[in-house]
């Protein structure tokens, strides 16, 4: 499947400082990783980000869904997800960032499927479990003993497995197979140029019917609905953060007819593009054209 030639969406992207020269991986406090970690404007990254919050207050907004900030909260953000902080007090905790190529194995099954909830709230022994693994990662990262890169990869793998186990045990979080994960990641990358369920099924090596069964079992929805939701999310990002007209956004999303785009968006989002733009900006006081 060819990568989209469409220019990147005009949302804020961050050049990440990577202490100690180890790339593509870093761990530290919010202050150590950089001020962008507390940014109050919508932005997104081209790497994975795990946030472990131990203090603070306010709201963390991920793809326009608000989550109250509470201690012992873990967020796993995928590349391309838009997030920002609103009405926040001092946010305390750890930030872990890494690129997909840093993982020991293919991430399918280890990371939440795109479109799922990014949040996991820890309770009881779960707090010590996750905090202990992060302590181990932080120690290896700072001491840099021989073989530390391999140790970091191993500890990261353990952390992701434990987070996935905890997510699967949570009644509101569905587990996803490797195939479902690959499908949803492909959709997030290529939805502007490919919207055929059959094409995605072929790319992940299954029939459209089998892909439908897997997605329905893991996510409670259909592949077509995942594709439409991803397209609607791209539209929301453009509406919230650019001054493109509705017709220009329709064109950017490869809709030939702006009126059809309007009907599509209202069906998916429950409101018109213009009303969404006005309401989301008023709700979050989103600054324009950063």
In short:
The chain is α+β, with helices and mostly antiparallel strands and 290 residues long. Helices cover 44% and strands 15% of the residues.
Describe the structure.
- GO terms for molecular function: DNA binding.
- Residues 181-279 form the HTH araC/xylS-type domain.
- This is AraC-type DNA-binding protein.
- InterPro entries: AraC-bd (IPR003313), Homeodomain-like_sf (IPR009057), HTH-like (IPR037923), HTH_AraC (IPR018060), RmlC-like_jellyroll (IPR014710).
- Keywords: DNA-binding, Transcription, Transcription regulation.
- With 290 residues, this protein is α+β, with helices and mostly antiparallel strands.
- The chain has two domains: 12-169, Regulatory protein AraC (Jelly Rolls, Sandwich); 178-284, Arc Repressor Mutant, subunit A, CATH 1.10.10.
- It is 44% helix and 15% strand.
- It has ten helices and ten strands.
- The chain has helices at 30-33, 125-143, 148-169, 178-190, 197-204, 208-219, 223-241, 246-252, 258-269, 273-284; strands spanning 12-13, 25-29, 43-44, 48-55, 59-62, 65-68, 73-77, 83-86, 92-98, 119-121.
- The strands form three sheets. The chain has a five-stranded antiparallel beta sheet. A three-stranded antiparallel beta sheet has the order 6-5-8, with no helix packed on it.
- Mean pLDDT is 85; it is low at 2-13 and 170-175.
